[in-house]
Amino acid sequence: MNSPTTGLTRRATITAGAIAALAGLLAPRMAFADEKQVADEIKKLYGDKAMAEGKIRLDVPEIAENGLVVPINIEVDSPMTEADHVKAVHVFADGNPLPGIVSYSFTPACGKASAATRMRLAQTQNIICIAEMSNGTLHTAKANVKVTIGGCGG
Questions:
Q1: Residue range(s) defining the domain that contains residue 114
Q2: Max CA-CA distance within the chain?
Q3: End-to-end alpha-carbon separation of the chain, Å?
Q4: Residue partners of 73: CB distance under 8 A and separation at least 6
Q5: Is the pLDDT assigned to residue 71 strictly greater than 70?
Q6: Rg for the chain (alpha carbons), in Å?
Q7: In 3-state terms, what secondary structure has residue 34?
Q8: Which pLDDT value is given to residue 128?
Q9: pTM (2 decimals)?
């Protein structure tokens, strides 16, 4: 007998529900990046080049009550002259589906090497920021953000 509201038989409704439930069980779980994947991404960019701490002010909250909108502010100490400036800044997270969060390019015309955005964090994780200077040196900063409500499915 067909349902008056959907036009489907009871058997078709049960079959559709079973297929949906089975698809949910068989669907692959979302995989998250880890520290090794972040290190591999950084190695792709810079090889085994040494990185010094300092010069980067990475401002992220220690605790993010909502992983959907976590603010991040980055500022790199540089005179931003032709001879001495920040070329690029890369941000990585070791607990998101993809390790790379955002990359910025700078020139001396920028006047200041700073950027602000919001990112989605799936779970509590480390945020790693790398600044590439015009002379080829690299600087890094790291912060841990505890996420209390998941952003990417957590």
A1: 35-147
A2: 80
A3: 41
A4: 57, 58, 59, 60, 114, 115, 116
A5: yes
A6: 22
A7: coil
A8: 97
A9: 0.76
